[in-house]
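Example 3.2
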Amino acid sequence: MSSRGDGTVKEGRVFRVVGRAILAVAFAASAGGLFAASAGDARNQLPPGDSEDHSRLTTEERIWFRQMDPSIRESGPYQYPLFAERYVRWLKHELPVVTSLAPMALSGVVVEGEVDATNNPIPESEVTISINPRNPNQIVGASNTIANNAGQTLFSSTDGGRTWLRQFFADVPGYSFQSDPTVAWDSIGNAYSITLAVNLPVIKPYITKSTDAGVSWSTPREIPTSSGSNDKEMMWVDSRPASPCRDFVYLAWDNYSSGKMLFSRSTDGGATFTAKPIVVDTNQAGLIGANVTAGPDGEVYVAYQSVGHKMRFVRSLDCGSTFEPAIDAASLKQSFQFNVPAQCSRGALVYPSIDSDRSYGCRNGWIYMTWADSLSGGRCTDNQCPSTQACTTDIYFSRSTDAGVTWSSPRIVNDAQDDQSAKVDQFFPWLAADDSDGSVWIGFYDTRNDPNRIKTDYYLTRSTDGGETWMPNVRVSADSSDETAAGAERGNQRGDYSGLAASNGHVYGIWADRRPGGTSENSEDAYVGIVSADPAGCVVGNLDGGTPIGLN
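Structure, written as tokens:
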């Protein structure tokens, strides 16, 4: 059930398409069709608080979702799963069925170029990437497949990202839809990928494993979850050879029907997981956007956002066995999602990305976090295409030098910001700390090259002093991408996040791209930027005061 680089697909993939078609026909044949509801009483079938939800589902679609999943919340801005619109379009058959390198150097950083990693006629979005810590030339990535077969694409490289093998996440029996990819490696070179399998009202994570650098993948295994609706899972594998939790697999996600943030772990290479997920935080207003990482000595860190305008953080000091009470790491202007012209129909999550310094250098144990937010208050609400949204967004960064007990005041890391003559947006940042030297990297989407704030490029920045200073942002994408143009996959656009991985001076950023004139012109592809960097010296800075406090 895989696809080779020549685009050929084995028969196993066809069964999902046929099975989904039969399912849709059966729904359409039922009273009035899949999403039918009389105009006169449709709204009366929804709870009064449904109007508070920020999704763009129609009234009929909302009614259908609640019939399929009675556990959906009845108030607040985050009631339906974020994949809901993609899922509806998939059921309606509205989704389609179907670089050369130019080195550039800057401050010890060389942008070697970019590669279309998927080169796929099927649109893709919501991308993720990870490097084998034993061999930085081996990389795995994944993306949502935005098509009638609505699964996930897996792709791998064994030559530092120059060429890629494209496959698909295996079919999960009883489930016809997959979403929210996440990938990782362990210390001995095994790769892992997790997806959310959907057959409403059931939404469950499944894991698959590769022991041959992504050439083949195991039969997916279910990861135990609580009842209700699960969303936005992220994985991390503690691949440090000296860690007391070596090769433990960690997974964090939100249960949006209960307002809980959940955590599970595997201590046997993904064969089994925690029988009952640990509830690390609860907020009836809603929690969303989990991201998880590990410290150098058995710590586990989880960051996520509260619908109540807070960036939340929780930690475990015993390899994920128990967790301390969660804290507020930062205050947010946006609740959990905003709209900008480049992401005008789907919207963009605030979504945190977190990592820690595991270099055993002078900043060993420091934790870093990034997210997108607006400069001023008031929700960015315009979700029309084209958009005239006045609200603009930036990339924020905060750090903790005491294992997450306290956090620095957030600061902006993008160097293209609003002025009196132009507005600029940055969103969907991802952060990676290089274990070899502790340098911190952040990649993000950026509209600075388009005065209309519609076309995006992928930009990257690096700090070698723990986030005190940042190198000038460098453009990695060779051309801009417009996800609002005619024929674009507007329901999904870029998905909900980008990806970034760094190891031993090798850095790979990944983004969704639909540039004109390229292989991805008629369908969004996953592009990978290839970057290399000189080792960083160990300079420690005082983030709030701006004065270096140590030099090694």
